[in-house]
TrEMBL record:
Claim: Glycoprotein is one of the keywords in the record: no
Taxonomy, superkingdom: Eukaryota
Family statement drawn from the similarity comment of this UniProt entry: Belongs to the histidine acid phosphatase family.
Signal peptide region: 1-18
One GO MF term attached to the UniProt entry: acid phosphatase activity
Taxonomic placement: Eukaryota, Metazoa, Ecdysozoa, Nematoda, Chromadorea
Matches recorded under InterPro entries: Acid_Pase_AS, His_Pase_clade-2, His_PPase_superfam, Histidine_acid_phosphatase
Reaction catalysed by this enzyme: a phosphate monoester + H2O = an alcohol + phosphate
The UniProt record lists the keyword Signal: yes
Keywords per UniProt: Signal
Protein name per the record: Histidine acid phosphatase
């Protein structure tokens, strides 16, 4: 699984009367992104993506901006009236993983949350300054040391449990049952494919389809469906929620994020 299945963490707090909303914690993923890479026979190379492999796309920016608008409607303009109309440091804390696509997602989201900045107060009174844009700090730590947002941060015990899963009867059965399919995809893609990495092909196919890029004739509707289903099965193994069920691995993959919620 890709090393950056990461999330953004938003903490919002203020002081109110008893029996009223006093804290909101929101966790979300980054917006739409380009594939992390591609397979040898794919005609769509890195230059097909505006910012390159793994980066947030324009669609992803728009998605995050829309989410920011939704948060604003609910917690600023809506019935809750929880936050001030414009940014106040004591009301908002946001943390992101140290990856371009999540940091830019946070920026786009905050632009949607706070589109009504006041010149001379929230930002410089300059004609060259982007209209109503208020700079808001986004906190992060190095990805290798991020035990909150990086679900695949270094963990020897998680590695041990993953090895147990890959040696399990159920894992080997699924791998053997789909060997012919893996061989077929390997031949067509030019990449050695197995149960561990089938999600890579599916991720590329999904991302390209979202952006209306042509797909090779060998990815039929049935192949597309099987890529998707096997990728889901792989994820279930990785997170310990398929046989053999390993709740400890699920907790380790969740990291310390749950302690903050």
């Amino acid at each position: 699984m890709a090393a950056f299945l990461i999330f953004l963490l938003l903490l919002i707090g203020t002081t109110t009367l008893a029996d009223e909303l006093i804290l909101v914690q929101i966790v979300w993923r980054h917006g739409d992104r380009a594939p992390m890479s591609t397979y040898p026979t794919d005609i769509h190379r890195e230059e097909a993506w505006s910012y390159g492999w793994g980066e947030l796309t324009e669609l992803g920016m728009q998605q995050q901006f829309a989410l920011g608008r939704l948060i604003r409607h609910r917690y600023i303009e809506g019935n809750y009236n929880f936050l001030s109309n414009n940014y106040k440091p004591k009301e908002l804390y946001i943390r992101s993983t140290d990856v371009n696509r999540t940091l830019i997602s946070a920026l786009a989201n905050l632009a949607g949350m706070y589109p009504t900045g006041i010149p001379g107060k929230d930002y410089p009174e300059s004609k060259q300054w982007p209209t109503h844009w208020t700079p808001i700090p986004i906190h992060t730590v190095q990805n290798e040391e991020d035990f909150v947002g990086n679900v695949f941060s270094r963990c020897p015990r998680a590695d041990q449990l993953t090895a147990i899963i890959r040696c399990s009867k159920h894992y080997r059965e699924v791998a053997n049952e789909n060997k012919n399919f893996f061989d077929y995809v390997s031949e067509k893609s030019g990449m050695k494919v197995n149960l561990d990495n089938i999600y890579i092909i599916n991720d590329i196919h999904y991302a390209e389809t979202v952006h209306n890029m042509s797909q090779p004739s060998w990815i039929t509707d049935d192949v597309s469906k099987k890529l998707r289903n096997l990728s889901m099965i792989t994820s279930e193994f990785i997170y310990g929620i398929s046989k053999p069920y390993l709740p400890e691995l699920t907790k380790l993959r969740g990291g310390k994020a749950f302690l903050l919620l």
